[in-house]
Every structure is written in structure tokens, then in C-alpha cells.
Amino acid sequence: MVNPYLEGNFAPVLEERSEDHELEVTGALPPDLDGRLLRNGPNPVATPADPADYHWFSGDGMLHAISLAGGKATGYRNRWVRTRALAGKVSTVRPSGPMEPIDGPANTHVIRHAGTTLALCESGFPHAVSPDLSRARVHDFDAALSSPMTAHPKVDPVSGELVFFGTDPFGPPFLRYHVVDATGELTRTVELEVPRATMMHDFAVTATQAIFLDQPVIFDLALAAQGRALPYRWDAQAGSRIGVLPRQGSAADVRWITMDPSYVFHVLNAFDDPGPDGSDRIVLDVLRYDRVFDTAPGDPIASCLPALFRWTIDPLARTVDETQRDDTPMEFPRIDPAVAGQAYRYGYCTRLGDDPAQPSMPGLVKIDLARDEVVRFDPGEGRACSEPVFVRATDGTGEDEGWVLSVVHDAATDRSDLVVLDATSFAGPPVATVHLPARVPFGFHGSWVATNS
Ligand SMILES: [Fe+2]
Asked: Which of 188, 140, 144, 198 is closest to 168 using CA atoms?
């Protein structure tokens, strides 16, 4: 096998489809699911020149939209994100001129905020996407954004603000913190001083703090000069630090706390948790790897598997306490958006296969932090899951009273389904399965976008 990320359901689909008609459903779709599940993932438009060097993180972004309304599945469509890079006009990896926005592959996440749908990837600027997914343009918040944007912004459920950061390997500054208000206007940028560009994939936001993960995966100019698809490498000597910035603070207020090297792609959630002595503790629940990017190009990105850890940070004492909460290999963590940044109980993840050399996603898990329990959903033999997206039921009052949506690939038919689980009966069976007319390749992240948003 030349590259596992070009094989099986990692392989790209080559057709853009517009299935604007009712799709077959098994079971009963909850009628309160009225909107679209949008998904994003890498789908290289052409076979990479050197398949062995192709990296899963670098393929051109493709969006998938599954429409639900009135207890029916009303359509499916998929489109490449129309970046200028896709049209061959600009490089995906370097600015074409001073302050020119970098496109990047726009392949990691898709969100909707302040009436705009944004395709996101940390190596480039956001792309605003048209409702039919057929058009896209660089979105730089009226020229207020001057460097790439993370694919993992956080929406404050109280203020409606979109809080995010961006890293710029061509800095300094290598790191910026930004706030976009509920109307979509970029109102605040704080430039943060870090010694080098590292791969910061995600971060955390509580009601009062923003937390940055400066971990030892470093941008390597020599690898970039070689034309490597992803010029990053593990360097334990670079050390690990957590940066804590009060959300209303300035660059002078950030506190950096050193900790043992490890790597976190994704944070499940974080919240302020004042200690009994009144100290300003912060809790971060993360999926922690011992190390990543310690493998050959084309190989899985890590030689180990991630597990759920709780990091309790004391910013004044500058300490981080690490406690493993579960040993199930899992990734792509999601929560109910209503509890983002707040004390919470439940999380949902993709369960990973036990062999890091054979990347697979054979199920889903629901994490119950109050009971210290992990419940599994098994999609059946030969079926593989994607990131679970939680949608609170219209009449749901409890934190897990809602639906979990995951696109599931069936190896026997080489087609995909949208599986809808009742989160309160997570082990299944699904309440509904929408049979899609095509295969949806394994991707990264997505969002439920209600029709009225
Ligand atoms: Fe991610």
C-alpha cells in the first residue's frame, strides 16, 4: 500500500452530486431536525504527484451537505471548496505577496456564524461558502484578519462571540488571538509572542480565559523547502507550554506554564473551576497523545493512540495536574454547544481502532464524566464512523436530550449512511438511518446548521 490515506474510504470521490430529492430512510427521523449537516474533509482533486508523500491533512477540501426537514431526508450534495488554489491561481503554502491571504486547502471544518458559512483550515484564511456550496471566497472579516485562522474557533453560548486564534509560520508574531462579535465583526486582535511556529490545531475557551497549547510539533523550514506536504516534525526538546490569557486581557497578561511534552489535537471542553481556596483553577478535558509526527511521510501521524485526560491548571501556581480519565482510544470530540466553556457532563467521540498503524474508526463513544463511564455505539461489522455531532432536541432540557449525527461508511456496499442516535440511548439501535446515494470519504469536522440560523 503506497499511502493508507488514499485507500478505502480515505480515497477521494471524483464526482460532485446534486441529489435534490427525498432520500431513503430506515427508522423515523426526528421532525425537529430541520436543517443541514455540513461536513468537511480532504479530497484531493488530482492524484498527488508523490502519493507516498501525500498527507491526509493536505488534500483539497470537499463539503458534503445532508438536508433534513419534517421527518424526511430532503437532499444531499457535495462540492469542492472553490479556493483560488484549487483553480491554480495561488500557492497553497506560501503568500503570493505581502499580506495576501493564504488560501490553504480549506479542508478541516465548516461552521456557520453571523449568517455566514465558513470552510476552515488552520494553514489558510477562512472561505465564505454560498448556500449551494458552489462558490467560495476568502473571508478576512473586512480585511481585519491578517493571518490564517484555526479550524477550531469557539462560539461563546452566552455572548454569541466567535473566539479564535491563528498561527502564521511566516511570522512573527507567530500567534494571534481574535474575537468576532455576534454580528460577524472582528473586534479584537491580540498579538502573542511565542518563539517559533508550532502546530496549534485547537485551543480552549472558558467563560473568562483563552488557553493556548504550544506543543513540540514545530514548523520546519527545511522540510518546507523540500516541498513536503506538511512541513512539521516532533521535537521533544522544544518543550510543551500552556498559555492562559484572560479573554479581556492584553498580551502582557498571558501566563505560560511549562509541562511535560505531549500532544493534543483536540479539546473536548474547558471551564473555570475555582479551587476551595478561591484560586482560579481551569479544567481542560483533552485527547492526549504521548507524541505525534514521529512517523514517516504517508504513515499514520502518530505511533501511539490518544486517550481522555483531564488537565487542571492553576495559573497562579503555574502548575498543570494531568489525570487520565479513560483509556479508550478516541478522537473528534464534540459536546452540546450550549455547554461550551462551562461545567458539563457529557462528550461524544469517534472510537479509534486499537492499532495506530492501521487507522480506523469502528465506533462512537459517549463520555459521562459524572459517572466516569464510557458508553459505546457499534455501527455493525464492516461499518466505520465519523465525528459525532450533537444536536439538542427542540424540547430537550437535559444536557444529553438530543440527537447524535454521524456519517457511517459501509465497506460492503461502499456507500455511506447518516446515522441518527438518541443520545440518551446511545448504544442504539439508531432512531434513523439515512441512506446516501454516494460514499462520503472519512473527513474531519462538521456542523449542524438549523434552517433558521
Ligand atoms: Fe480538528
From this structure: 198
CA of 353 to the centre of ligand 1 (A): 18
Query: What is the phi-psi region of residue 105: left when phi exceeds 0, alpha when psi lies from -120 to 50, beta otherwise?
Result: alpha
User: What residues does each domain of the chain span?
Assistant: 4-450
In words, the CATH class of domain 4-450 is: mainly beta
In this structure, how many other beta carbons lie within 10 angstroms of the beta carbon of residue 158? 11
CA 279 / ligand 1 centre spacing (Å) = 31
Q: Exposed, middle or buried by CB within 10 Å (0-12, 13-18, 19+), for 326?
A: middle
**Band (297; pLDDT cuts 50, 70, 90):** low
pLDDT of residue 157: 98
pTM over 0.90: yes
Distance 330 CA to ligand 1 centre (A): 13
Strand 415-422 and strand 402-410: the pairing is antiparallel
**DSSP of 11-64:** SPP----EE-S-B-EEE---TT--EEEEEEEE--SS--SSGGG--GGGSPEEEE
How far away, in angstroms, is 318 Cα from ligand 1 center?
Answer: 27
The alpha carbon of 436 and the centre of ligand 1 are apart by a number of angstroms equal to 24
Q: Which residue has the cell 512573527?
A: 172
Give the pLDDT score at 277. Answer: 80
Task: Compute φ and ψ for 238, nearest 5 degrees.
Answer: -70, -20
444 Cα to the center of ligand 1, angstroms = 6
DSSP 184-240: S-EEEEEEE--SS-B-----EE-SSEEEEEE-SEEE-HHHHHTT-SS-EEE-GGG-E
Q: How confident is the model at residue 35 (pLDDT cuts 50, 70, 90)?
A: very high
Cβ atoms 344, 399 nearer than 8 A: yes
